[in-house]
Structure formats: structure tokens, C-alpha cells
Design goal:
The chain is of the alpha/beta class. Helix content is about 20%, strand content about 30%. Strands 1, 2, 3, 4, 5, 6 and 17 form a seven-stranded mixed sheet that branches. Helix 1 (about 15-25) packs parallel to helix 2, helix 1 (about 15-25) runs parallel beside helix 6 (about 285-305) and helix 4 (about 155-165) packs parallel to helix 5 (about 185-190). Bound molecules: NADP nicotinamide-adenine-dinucleotide phosphate. NADP nicotinamide-adenine-dinucleotide phosphate binds next to helix 4.
């Protein structure tokens, strides 16, 4: 790795890798920094992606590998590291990594993605990895022929419940409302499965268990009725929050921590652009993240022309 690049892209999910492809095609000296050893971000944990154009039914790992391979073939440079600070020295941007390294660039594209939202109920932290999971495709196989619950009503919760139903004896979907948020096609599939039961208007008050999850304490939000449910595993799929703690005080963030930027990716710091799930926007999908990556490079090129 060199000490200076035209552009540093922070994050190796669909937005970051699309930005890398566009940046290399624009002949920019490009470094991608990803904190995980594998690029792909959340897509890596998706069992099946059925709405990326042209690749119906592809699994998340293969799609990530396609993105990664495309960027690698264009000779984008990858580095594993975690950004802990972004600052400026004169006209140069500086990305500071957790190991103390400082890497310089004319421009920076932030494609930081997001992390799992916690349920914030007693037992969640203590039983994480002991029956509490945030990734059905990673951990589902441990629960073959057992009883599990998925918390949430969005696309991820529906996908997770459908995935788990293939191997589990019984899967409960626990949702706080009487209507699901996820795509209709997933709702129909889920509701057709014999071993899936939806607990509507229900919230989890506590995850029970000593060494391992044994069940959950529930409350119906409409009737106030409390109940207990015996379980072997709990999958929390209640959305994500942006991973922007390193940027507090550096860039404009909204009240939920998303980086404030329009479709052009232009942030409050000139020369710094952002795209993907960490950006303020309405529709967070792989295809919109990829579009963001392309837009960021277009905006970056315009910025560089004026430097
Ligand atoms: P999401 O769409 O934000 O859904 C989160 C779900 O969790 C909602 O049903 C929400 O309930 C519930 N929830 C939130 N906080 C909760 C809490 N504290 N306690 C209990 N329930 C809570 O999140 P997601 O499913 O992770 O999806 C994230 C984004 O990725 C979305 O934009 C989604 O469309 C996208 N995605 C797309 C695909 C695909 O296109 N193939 C696949 C996966 C994800 P309410 O409904 O009551 O708000």
C-alpha cells in the first residue's frame, strides 16, 4: 500500500465496489479500505438476492464475489483496516486507521454501510452467540430440527424466517405490528409455510436462558397480555443503523447517524462523498447502493477538475 492515492473508498459493499469500478475506469489511483477480511458487506449474509437486475436468485456471496472480481480485474487496490478518523491536511484528505496508519488522498468516498440494530432487551447481550444471532444464513444450520424465532417484519426478517423454516422444526416470526413491512412476494411465501407461525402485535421483553437461550418473554402490545415461549434460538432482524461513529463532528449527520448527502453523494466536507446504506435516502437496496457508488465517482471527478 502506498501513502497517497487519488481516491480512497472506505467500505467494500456494493456502493464501495461500484465506486471502485467507476474510479478505475476513470483512471484514478484507487484504494478500497474494508474492515472485514471479505468484501461484500451485508450482502455476504444474504441467502438469495432476487431483485438485482439480470441475476435472479443469485446468492449474496456469489454476487459480492462478482462485484469484487470486477474491481480486482480493473486493478483496484484493497486493504483490510478500520477507519477511526477522517481529517484534512491542506487540500488533502487523511484517512486514519485503527492501527495508526495515515493514508492520504485527493478525495474520499464513504461507503460505510450499516450494522445490525440491537433489540435492547435483557438477555440479548449475555446470550449473543449462545442462541442469539443477527445472521440466519451464518448460524441457521446450528438450529436444525429445533425451534427458533425471528424478530422483525422487514425484508431481512422475512428472508431469515423463510431460510430457517427449511431446516428448523418450527419458526416463529415475532412482529410488533399487525402488518409486515417486507416485500409482498416474501410475505406470501412466508405465510404459505406450514412450520412458520406469525405472532402479531408482539414484542419481546426478555430473552431467557442461562448458558444458552431457552425462550423469550413476550407481551401483546394491543391486549397487554404477557406470555412465555420456549425456543432454542432467537434471530434479531429489526433493521440496521449506520456505522458512522468515526465521523461524528466531522461531517453533517442526521439525527439517526446517516451522512447527509443527496443522490450526487456530496457531503458537507468538500472532496468527501458518500453512498450506499450510510447515506440519507429512502430506498436502501443493493441496486441503489451500486447507483450511489457510480454517482459518487461522477461527483468526485467534477471536484478534482476544479482542484
Ligand atoms: P427494515 O426494512 O427497516 O425493517 C425492520 C423491521 O424491524 C420492521 O418491520 C420494524 O417494524 C422492525 N423493528 C424495528 N425496530 C424494532 C424494535 N426495536 N423492536 C421490534 N421490531 C423492530 O430493515 P431490514 O429488514 O433489515 O431491511 C433493511 C433494508 O434493506 C430495507 O430497506 C430493505 O428493503 C433492504 N433489503 C432488501 C432486500 C431485497 O431487496 N432483497 C433484502 C434485505 C433487505 P415496523 O415495520 O413496525 O417499523
Amino acid at each position: 500500500m502506498k501513502k497517497e492515492y487519488d481516491v480512497i473508498i472506505v467500505g467494500g459493499g456494493p456502493a464501495g465496489m461500484t465506486a471502485a469500478i467507476y474510479a478505475k475506469r476513470a483512471a484514478l489511483d484507487t484504494l478500497i479500505i474494508e474492515k472485514q477480511p471479505f468484501c461484500g458487506g451485508q450482502v455476504l449474509n444474504t441467502y438469495e438476492v432476487d431483485n438485482y437486475p439480470g441475476l435472479p436468485g443469485i446468492d449474496g456471496f456469489s454476487l459480492s464475489e462478482k462485484f469484487h472480481g470486477h474491481a480486482r480485474n480493473l486493478e483496484a487496490e484493497f486493504y483490510t483496516g478500520e477507519m477511526i478518523e477522517l481529517c484534512e491536511e491542506g487540500k488533502k484528505k487523511v484517512v486514519v486507521l485503527s492501527n495508526g496508519e495515515r493514508i492520504y488522498a485527493k478525495g474520499v468516498i464513504l461507503a460505510l454501510g450499516s450494522v445490525h440494530r440491537k433489540a435492547m432487551v435483557p438477555g440479548e447481550e449475555e446470550l449473543k452467540g449462545k442462541g442469539v444471532s443477527y445472521c440466519a444464513t451464518c448460524d441457521g444450520a446450528f438450529f436444525r430440527d429445533q425451534t427458533t424465532a425471528v424478530i422483525g417484519g422487514g425484508d431481512v426478517a422475512l428472508e431469515d424466517a423463510i431460510f430457517l423454516a427449511r431446516g428448523c422444526k418450527k419458526v416463529y416470526l415475532i412482529h410488533r405490528r399487525d402488518e409486515l413491512r417486507g416485500a409482498k412476494i416474501l410475505q406470501n411465501k412466508l405465510l404459505s409455510l406450514d412450520n412458520v407461525e406469525v405472532l402479531w402485535d408482539t414484542v419481546i421483553e426478555k430473552i431467557e436462558g442461562d448458558q444458552f437461550v431457552t425462550g423469550v418473554s413476550l407481551q401483546n402490545v394491543k391486549t397487554g397480555e404477557k406470555s412465555e415461549l420456549s425456543l432454542d434460538g432467537v434471530f434479531v432482524a429489526i433493521g440496521t443503523v449506520p456505522d458512522t461513529k468515526a465521523l461524528k463532528g466531522t461531517l453533517d449527520l442526521d439525527e439517526n447517524g446517516y451522512i447527509v448527502a443527496g443522490e450526487d453523494g456530496i457531503t458537507s466536507m468538500p472532496g468527501v462523498f458518500c453512498g450506499g446504506d450510510c447515506r440519507t435516502k429512502k430506498l436502501r437496496q443493493i441496486v441503489t447502493s451500486a447507483a450511489d457508488g457510480a454517482n459518487c465517482v461522477f461527483s468526485l471527478e467534477q471536484y478534482l477538475m476544479k482542484l
